[in-house]
Amino acid sequence: MGCFFSRRRKPAQGGQQQQAGAGQDAAAAEEKAPQYxxxxxxxxxxxxxxxxxxxxxxxxRLPGKVAGQQFIIQDCENCSIxxxxxxxxxxxxxxxxxxxxxxxxxxxxxxxxxxxxxCIVACQQFRTRxxxxxxxxxxxxxxxxxxxxxGMKFGCFQYYYPELALQFKDAGLSIFNNTWxxxxxxxxxxxxxxxxxLPEDAVVQDYVPLxxxxxxxxxxxxxxxxxxxxPITRGRRQKSSDESCLVVFFAGDYTxxxxxxxxxxxxxxxxxxxxxxxxxMKAEExxxxxxxxxxxxxxxxxxxxxxALEFNGDGAVEGCQSTIxxxxxGTKVFVSESKAxxxxxxxxxxxxxxxxxxx
Length: 359
Hints:
twelve-stranded parallel beta sheet, alpha/beta
């Protein structure tokens, strides 16, 4: 019996015509099948996002080649590895005597069973397990964690190439949130210290040389501290003076540029940048930090996060005040009033900021 809706055909030609009609219907259905956005995506080949089993090689990925994907580095020895792009997460397993640069990582970077490696890393979360003798120039938005690891050394991230600033934005990382020296040792050993800080005068290129391959030389790199995307901070190193000063810039079109300008001015005068922070504030928090000056600044908080800088050195308060008056006369800026109040300003702000960021 035929389909209820099928047409009658002449017996001699019916079979062929029915088959032809079915083929045409199937082809038409195929042509009209809906196309979804996920069908249009380029296929991701895991090999493009993996370095595995390499020895004595220089390899890398140029800006735009990773584009927020996950990346895996494993079983590499005596290699120079450069990821000049932002990524989602990166895991590094069983690598020995490698030099590694990792551009901004939106999530976590996890080193496992690695030894004798020198690295430059920017990330949201940093963690190591079962590692030995890693030396890391680090930018990390949250508290870095080491576990079952020894001989770890840390310094402040120091690097520049033209695409790097946008990569930080694409990874959702602020250049002002860097807790590189605030290490948490998950497995401390009584009487021993599993980590320390790199020398203040450590030269980045002595640890991770610029790439030697012709392809990677196309990236215009500078390791000059004055050009670093991340401001170079002292972190937990001992302060040179008992006088610090808090400066807070409020959200606007030129907040980042103004903060960078003040850093250049103050460090040029011999003052030290201890720490920086970018964070959102509410009115009640402003009252705690800015005290009697809070009403002046509360309306500005609705525009976005603030950027805070702590400078240290004899005369830091007067130095900040005079520079801000000279260079930023038309800009609303909070600056500590005196040496006596400045230490409390710094403590109030960074206690609040650490609590907000879950430190």
